[in-house]
Prior knowledge:
Blueprint: E1 16-26, H1 32-43, H2 53-79, H3 86-102, E2 106-115, H4 119-128, E3 131-138, H5 145-159, E4 167-170, H6 178-195, E5 200-206, H7 210-214, H8 219-234, E6 241-246, H9 259-268, E7 273-277, H10 286-289, H11 291-302, E8 307-311, H12 318-331, H13 342-351
Parallel strand pairs: 1-2, 1-3, 3-4, 5-6, 5-7, 7-8
Helix pairs in contact: 1-2, 3-12, 6-8, 6-12, 9-11
GO molecular function, one term: metal ion binding
EC number: 4.98.1.1
Subcellular location: Cytoplasm
Amino acid sequence: MKYKNTPDFNHASQEKIGVLITNLGTPDEPTKPALKRYLKEFLSDPRVVEFPRALWWMVLNGVILQIRPKRSAQAYKTVWTEQGSPLLTITLAQLAALQKEFGPDVSVYAAMRYGNPSLSSVVEKMLADGVRKLLVVPLYPQYCAATTASTFDALAQDFTQRRWLPELRFISHYHDYSPYITACAGAIKEHWRQHGRAERLVLSFHGIPKRYLLKGDPYFCECHKTSRLIAQALGLSEGEYKMTFQSRFGREEWLKPYTDETLKQLAADGTKSVQVFCPGFAADCLETIEEIDVENRQYFIEAGGEKFEYIPALNDAPHHISALAQLIRDNLGGWSCDNSERTLQASLAGKLGAES
């Protein structure tokens, strides 16, 4: 096998510490062809859809990719901005804010699991920049095999093709990390300060098929713990908030209670005002901007509710950046780069015939 060499490698180059933040991904543009490329990559991941590969290939290519791209493109057009995809724009803002936090001591990068900037292309850039110690931070507070583990899979697959590997640390979850909980509670409190409190707070997480839980995925339990800790930080009793799951796909049973059905039922039972916050989303995206703030708002109002408010995700707000920076510092402990002998190493390598 021919392995990839580190781009422009030089034995005398300075070593760096790198931090890579990752998120799920986004299409390049809100068009049917772009959505077809994105959805094919996303839904072809066996971590995302645990189904017999041959049968799923036929369903995906013969049915889903013939219908869903057009519908998804229309939805993305409603959230697209002049800067592009909200998820990518916000992730890049998070990158800039974190780089400002760490200065020249740590180089911060951002990549998407699906779409662009691709994980492999960013790893290529990091290695070319001299990153020799790498901390990967998937921006999924709650561990799930379909998200967190899939990111590790992609990283590992890239590494199997490379000659030289950096030292690696990987954050698999931070669902109960105190600064993260404080950031979530702070965002809700700030919304309350500006707009007042609703009768009920709904904490909505992305759903997964129930069978993933039954096979041992801890996501459901971690969502519950996050919700409980946020409620404690806000001083809420059990009757003042509800935890739900959104974004289900297909006909099988997913984690319950479902967000849309819960909002309909709350309105039918006489609840006039709700506020929805999505603790599992580090950045606003289609699933929060369109699915929650448009689609689910409509469900609540049509069922008899009167006031619906979506509390934005943590995004690049200072309290979120501070929490992420502390999480990164905690996981960089003990790492430093000693470049004092790089010139000597280059000299020794040169004597053995190395070009650089």
